[in-house]
Amino acid sequence: MQKMGSLEVEKETTGWAARDPSGILSPYTYTLRNTGPEDVYVRVICCGICHTDIHQIKNDLGMSNYPMVPGHEVVGEVVEVGSEVTKFRVGDCVGVGVIVGCCKTCRPCKADIEQYCNKKIWSYNDVYTDGRPTQGGFAGAMVVHQKFVVKIPDGMSAEQAAPLLCAGVTVYSPLNHFGLKESGLRGAILGLGGVGHMGVKIAKAMGHHVTVISSSNKKREEAIEHLGADEYVVSSDSARMQEFADSIDYIIDTIPVFHPLEPYLSLLKVDGKLILMGVINTPLQFVSPMVMLGRKTITGSFVGSIKETEEMLEFCKERELTSTIEVVKMDYVNAALERLEKNDVRYRFVVDVAGSKLEQ
Predict the structure, then answer these.
(1) What's this model's pTM, rounded to 2 decimal places?
(2) Is omega for the bond preceding 172 within 30 degrees of 0, making it cis?
């Protein structure tokens, strides 16, 4: 072993890990890989909590490996860079999202949409190229290849930036890809959680007329007064839903549980798009004429590329868009996950990792 401070020394960090499908997190100390020539060693400042974290720690998708340190909306400070790192230097404030590796040679990788690479490596609950498990941002530090690190724009606070790295880019990417950035479009956001609230803010900033569709009235004031939505509809109010028939260009569907698609398909104009964003592990249903008789599209979109993440961060900075967050310490993380499952958060929890005592 070489002396401390050298890139060759393996570093330990403590994170909060789930040990089994109960999903309860507790302190877990593990070794990070060496900082390779193209790696960036990041001291974590804060990390957002996403609904996907619950799916993963509770093994909802049947693919969880334990111990698992979740967290993929990570903002931190660069502490060390490998010899071939060109994009970052020590002291930079940076972000890490859902993906930390890809094959670099397939069609999606060559087209800069590495989030669709079949060999992508998730930031946690996966195995890195060196055979070591990947662990996420509910931890003191991470080592990440420079390709999967983004610079946080100057003047944007770490806590505000964190949810943009998943919730923000998840909405920005399909609007960008499907040519839905021009002003004057009519959009609807289905579900007003972490992704949904960023959807309203980003779509409004693009100049869209935005309708929020929710299962109850309880978020009406929030949606209209605070987030700036133009309309608010309760999905069970069929008369009001009927008023919106054939009037919407796109719907961003963020609901992470089973729900019927027909009521929403009927709102779309000819060539309208229903864009699925919620991770749902039961089959969804619709009757084919609902799609055929308006040449409508049911499609999905998954986070966004590094390029889109950088664009989205600049877009949010220019328009002074921020996420609505509740900051918590790591010792509250289990309670926060429980509240998130009950939808009891406005709108994104962010864990103040640097300000927390990670060991107990």
Answers:
(1) 0.92
(2) no
Helix, strand or coil for residue 126? strand
User: Pairing between strand 39-49 and 141-145?
Assistant: antiparallel
What is the SS3 assignment for 282-295? CCCCCCCHHHHCCC
Sign of CA dihedral 87, 88, 89, 93: positive
Q: Across the chain, which distance is largest between two alpha carbons, in Å?
A: 72
Q: Which 8-state DSSP code applies to residue 153?
A: P
Query: pLDDT tens across 332-357, in order?
Result: 999 999 999 988 888 899 999 999 99
Task: Answer whether residue 3 shows pLDDT above 70.
Answer: no
E strands, the chain, in order: 11-18, 25-32, 39-49, 73-81, 93-96, 99-101, 121-122, 126-127, 133-134, 141-145, 149-151, 186-190, 209-214, 231-234, 248-253, 268-276, 297-300, 325-328, 348-352
**142 touches 44 (CB < 8 A):** yes
Q: Which tens digits make up the pLDDT trace of 222-268?
A: 999 999 999 999 999 999 999 999 999 999 999 988 999 999 999 99
Q: Which residues have CB under 8 Å from 202's CB, separation 6+?
A: 168, 171, 172, 175, 312, 315, 316, 321
Task: Say if residues 164 and 171 touch (Cβ distance below 8 Å).
Answer: no
